[in-house]
Design goal:
Elements: H1 5-61, H2 68-99, E1 107-111, H3 112-129, E2 133-137, E3 145-149, H4 150-166, E4 173-181, E5 184-191, H5 198-201, H6 213-218, H7 225-234, E6 241-245, E7 249-257
Parallel strand pairs: 2-4
Antiparallel strand pairs: 1-3, 4-5, 5-7, 6-7
Bound molecules: adenosine-5'-diphosphate (ADP).
Length: about 260
């Protein structure tokens, strides 16, 4: 009996080796599928603005260029599609660099309240066009210095506030709150738009995941904004949180350290 034991040991070793290799192969296959899907997604996303711009330019070349009004309208639309294409490529590069860990974070002290005011001013036009009211609440007697990457946090605020306007109803409201709790600054952006279905909530941070495809594209959305936001906050050892109720609206929030 004792003589089988070494053989059994070898068998066990071979078995566990096979299991480990199988797992490795499974991971590689999963990565390959993921890459294939990603390339398919990118191709599809790139085609949308390219085809649109092509359509307008060819229609102009086919004779529409003679009509001054049509000429102007089509050129404007072609320009918009090219802008979307540019934004998409920029976002893809940013996300890719973040996922590969090559993006460097430059931490400094700054006042996040001033930053939010700046973002609101920049998005005022967008809110006015939709008749959306943007309110910003903070304690006037408090200070709001944080230690973070300024450009990247600007991007986070811009993305969340811009989404709260874009996915709101006409005449809706956006409420931004900045609060100091212990040694953290807490930012929340609430809208009273449609809300996000429960099954989509987990997925909106994935690249190209959209709940409302047409509204996102019309608003110049790339479907990459929240994926970038998530990465930026991870780089700050922070997390983006979301709560949403259908028909009532959504709240996105995050925290940063007090400087
Ligand atoms: P997009 O460029 O499409 O806006 P994002 O990554 O910023 O991409 O958002 C992903 C998707 O999440 C959006 O397409 C939209 O469907 C949904 N979403 C984001 N913010 C909100 C919000 N405040 N209210 C409702 N839906 C939202």
């Amino acid at each position: 009996r004792t003589s089988i034991s070494p053989l059994r040991k070898i068998n066990q070793t071979i078995n566990s080796y096979a299991i480990a290799k199988n797992k490795e192969i499974e991971t590689l296959q999963k990565n390959a599928v993921f890459r294939k899907e990603f390339i398919a997604d990118i191709s599809h996303e790139l085609k949308t603005p390219i085809f649109a711009a092509q359509g307008y330019v060819h229609t102009l070349l086919d004779g529409a260029v003679e009509d001054e009004e049509v000429r102007y309208k089509f050129l404007k639309r072609a320009a918009k599609s090219l802008n979307n294409l540019d934004k998409l490529v920029q976002d893809l590069l940013t996300l890719n660099r973040m996922e590969n860990g090559v993006v460097k974070f430059h931490f400094e002290n700054f006042d996040i309240k001033d930053m939010i005011l700046e973002v609101i001013e920049q998005l005022e036009h967008k809110a006015d066009r939709r008749d959306v009211l943007v309110r910003f609440y903070f304690d006037k007697n408090d200070t709001f210095d944080t230690h973070a990457d300024k450009d990247k946090i600007y991007r986070v605020c811009q993305n969340l506030i811009s989404n709260a306007i874009k996915y709101n109803n006409d005449g809706g409201e956006v409420v931004i709150r900045l609060e100091k709790k212990k040694n953290k600054l807490h930012v929340s952006v609430r809208d009273n738009g449609k809300g996000i279905p429960e099954e989509d909530l987990k997925r909106i941070f994935e690249r190209f995941y959209r709940v409302e495809k047409s509204r996102s594209r019309e608003g110049g959305g790339t479907g990459l904004g929240l994926a970038i936001v998530k990465h930026i906050l991870e780089g700050h050892k922070s997390r983006i949180k979301v709560e949403s109720t259908i028909g009532k609206g959504s709240t996105f929030s995050f925290s940063l350290p007090v400087a």
